[in-house]
């Protein structure tokens, strides 16, 4: 009996979870609701899915969810979206996976289309909006930090996993490619009872990180071209490249998309950064910023094409390789490897928070006000509960940014 078959009848799954009987329209609406509440980027989205489907409805148990997240982290594409596709398949097979993925991305896609239209029509070139976007960015950082802590509390179960997470954070901040801490973390935890091999893994990982740092090779090199018009096919390929190369999390799509759009003169750096800021505000996977970039560069057709390219790998990997992913997740010999990878993932996303905070700080003109806003938003995210909390924090950030940070 497959997990999908068990889930359809509401029976217990091999891992102790149980997917209740759910019709395809209801499944689509469930993930549409998740998509409408998916504020705060991938970290917050994963925490929301964990709370609803693991903690409350118990579709799968916590260890299996952690292993699934570790596997999805090393696949290209936005991990929260891929998680929805995979959970939809657990419930209702490939049709369920397709509908869950579409439902999760649809609210953000529609809102980003509207945002792109409004930006081109009213916002572009007007300085009065900069404070609003900056205020929202600051409070989004607070939401992300709270989510990093929440996920870490579920994954970091002992000192060794904590050490792996910290080492991963440090390595990522020092510029190590994402795969080095993930690989080293998985191997170190799997070989924890063999200290000599652990030391060898650490030494090799440090050597690789130092070599990458000394080489100083950027992820991509923008190649300016003479023309400034963006064709639909070229935008699809730009999105597909970003979708295929987003190993290590959705944030890694940013340099690839920038190289193929800003680097070709299709959109300016300022508008590109505004798209990333809007993606952090909207309930959507972070890579939905590509929709904005496509709209500014090539109108509605451009937005549709770059979005299709960006999300195609996220659907394809889960829909095509579902059974193999399940086999990896259920293989006992790989559990410790995946637990170590999951701990390293916590470090990587914590480093992403630091990088985003540094980028936002560079735009702040009044640091004291920004710190007060961040602290207030963090306190609200930490203490308050409910689906309304994150949207309320975003609205407050926009208002404060408009009122104070533009002066």
TrEMBL record:
Gene Ontology molecular function terms on file: chromate transmembrane transporter activity
Cell compartment(s), UniProt: Cell membrane
The organism's place on the tree of life at top rank: Bacteria
Gene Ontology CC terms, in alphabetical order: plasma membrane
Membrane-spanning parts: 98-120, 126-148, 160-184, 196-220, 232-256, 276-296, 303-322, 334-357, 364-382, 388-405
Membrane topology: Multi-pass membrane protein
Main location: membrane
This protein's UniProt keywords: Cell membrane, Membrane, Transmembrane, Transmembrane helix
InterPro entries reported in the protein's UniProt record: Chr_Tranpt_l_chain, Chromate_transpt
Cited PANTHER family: CHROMATE ION TRANSPORTER (EUROFUNG) (PTHR33567:SF3)
NCBIfam families cross-referenced by the UniProt entry: 2A51
Family: Belongs to the chromate ion transporter (CHR) (TC 2.A.51) family.
Protein name: Chromate transporter
